[in-house]
User: What shape does this take?
Amino acid sequence: MSTRQRLNALGITPRKSLGQNFLTDPTIARAIVAAAHINPGDLVVEIGPGIGALTQFLVQQAGHVIAIELDQHLIPALQAELGQPANLTVLHADALKVDYDSIRQISGGDGYPPDTPVRVIGNLPYYITSALIRRLLESELKPALITLTVQMEVAQRMIAKPDEMSLLAVSVQFYGHPKLVMRITPSAFYPQPDVDSAVVTIAPHAQPLYPSPNSIFALARAGFSQRRKQLRNTLAGGLAITHQEAEEILLASRINPARRAETLAVDEWITLAAHYDAQKRRAKATRKPTGKRLKTSAAPDAK
Ligand code: SAM
Assistant: This one.
């Protein structure tokens, strides 16, 4: 039976609002799962299992699979398609709201020891991609590898190099090493999307590249808020600092203030963040205390 016929039989009409383009080609599903390099003991977190195009192979290879699906109508359909494999836990939840720090505890039993390798896999609606990646990479889950099927254009933005950087590229490359694995044409899905898709893996860095990601993202958000403008202007406007302060941070980082955000590599954002944080510390140290005057016993009471 084709995916379309199976969906019909299950009484499911794909919902565009949830990015429901179901994978129809099992050869491609196998190739995506192969890209995730799953080992038998691994815990796999699948985002958006749909009716199980990937899940059917994941449960064969992983120790346990936690599949997070937002559409409650798909959950009985997924169970009807796959039966109830003992190593599958289906969570009805929004993947953007799940507490990934504690997800090991809901693996269908006693949970997994903290050193169990975790792999995340998902064929994602494009509109949750960047928020989800940041949530996953900032969590305590510490996945060994994230394997995502996304729009081709999103994949290309993730792996972009200086001159074509974006906020997404900075976010992904700050946390990990993205790699484009393969292109998928629209004919592999039902309904067919308008554009090509791609499989990307992100291997998270073993250690954080900078201890305070908030500074990196404050700078990058400011920088990319008006991508055609020079950094001296975008940083001043976006960070509510003076143009002189913005220039000082840029020059201390050996970055020409006339450059644009899209030209900066991740290590330059890190240098910038270090100087930005140092400037904030200096400003704090020199700020006059503004607290209430304390009444001391030496001060005579006003009568
Ligand atoms: N993995 C299936 C496949 O390859 O055929 C389905 C992929 S479909 C592109 C995206 C899936 O993500 C759908 O099942 C959709 O309901 C689900 N989804 C959409 N937004 C979600 C969210 N915020 N949290 C969890 N699942 C979501």
Remarks:
- Residues 18-23, 47-50, 53-54, 68-71, 74, 94-96, 123, 125, 128 surround S-adenosylmethionine (CB under 6 Å).
- Residues 294-303 have pLDDT under 50 and may be disordered.
- The radius of gyration is 24 Å.
- Residues 284 and 290 are 12 Å apart (CA to CA).
